Amino acid sequence: MSIKSIFKKSAPIKIQIISTIVILLVFFVCPLTFAGEYFTIEAIQYRIKGYVYQQQGNFDSAIENYKMAVAQNPFYVCAYNDLGIVYEQMGWPEKAEEQYIKAISIDSSYGSAYTNLALLYEKAGDLISARYYWGKRANLGNSNEQWTLGAKNRYNELGELIKKQKKQPVL
């Protein structure tokens, strides 16, 4: 039986294969908080299922699985961040903001949540808050890293934009 035929015949097997691959990658891509009893493989599996559903556009199932992931591990910053992304995709910026802030409150060095908050505030037109979170993201990580450099550039760009806006007369 070929891999291609497995993927065509059974969605649960497809999810298991994807889950196994992503579980291996998760340990290298996303920092997890190992909080004794809270770290579980189940939390990782729920996050992976959430991601698969999110990619399929099944946002309700994605939310359900991300919530199960954080129920299994309340310190799972990646799952909170992912939940925020889905809430944004569904048009719920307040809920997204809550999740990003929750991720940061658990791990203040988790750069993705700062980036997502900055983008969320930019989208809402709150350039001062956006600039603040770009600045927080810029202070994380290696100064030569792509995301750090991008955050520094955006922080500076927004600073200039805010200055220009303040100088324009109000009509």
Report a brief summary of the structure.
With 171 residues, the protein is mainly α. It contains nine helices and no strands.
Profile the largest sheet: none
Total number of beta strands: 0
Number of helices: 9
Note the beta-strand portion.
Answer: under 5%
Radius of gyration over C-alpha positions, nearest whole angstrom: 19 Å
> Which term fits the overall shape?
elongated
**Helical fraction:** over 70%
Give helix and strand order, one letter per element, not per position: HHHHHHHHH
Low-confidence stretches: 1-10, 24-29, 31-37
Summed over residues and divided by their number, the pLDDT gives a mean of 84
User: Structural class of the secondary structure composition?
Assistant: mainly alpha
How far apart lie the N and C ends? 71 Å
